[in-house]
């Protein structure tokens, strides 16, 4: 039997008197899966993600990565949040290189090559020497993604990373992220409120109930719309059908009838 890659084993979480994850939450995420967590505000998605990152501990239960309990944050698990705080006194390339500061296995030249490779991947080669306050919010988000990839994280934990972007940049980054995830074979947990974004990006969507969070639905997106996410797919009948059914599930989670 193969070892599960990332496994939530009977997790519960309480903050004081507040039950955030309950009943015990269990989920297995295979290697290289693009997983999207979708659910009402405040239901506990971020808390679950922070647990994978090692920033929060479960009240009961365990999260295991390849059979080993998750502990302190390390560079295997990289986090990208909605608002990225870059260092204004470092260039774009230096900000990306900063993600590799603990990679003592890499020489200075290798770090530089890697930084350039990932900047190219996110389409920012021409801005390597720019300073963060001279580029747009969307570009800064790409810097954050490049930095996390350059660090060599095999799991990307992304908490509404595109939330603050305008629709056009958001769509562009969705396309790029999906491409990078497939090319680099990353495992991603991506939190969003946006159903369209969820369906476009995900191999699989977990829809959460209101707090305390439990799984309302586990949707195999790839089985329904395939692996190849061309932009045109968003207008296809199968995409629209799935989007509408996910929307209904999310509305049901909020307790409204329509
Ligand atoms: N450190 C903490 N101490 C006390 N309560 C907390 C703490 N962290 C989170 N909570 C509470 O736990 C609940 C779940 O929060 P969480 O951020 O995980 O939700 P979420 O589903 O990610 O919400 P959103 O989509 O709005 O970001 C919220 O009610 C929040 O106020």
TrEMBL record:
Residues 6-235 form the ABC transporter domain. The keyword ATP-binding applies. InterPro entries: AAA+_ATPase (IPR003593), ABC_transporter-like_ATP-bd (IPR003439), ABC_transporter-like_CS (IPR017871), ABC_transporter_ATP-bind (IPR050166), P-loop_NTPase (IPR027417). Signal peptide: none annotated. Pfam families: ABC_tran. It comes from the Bacteria. This is ABC transporter nitrate permease.
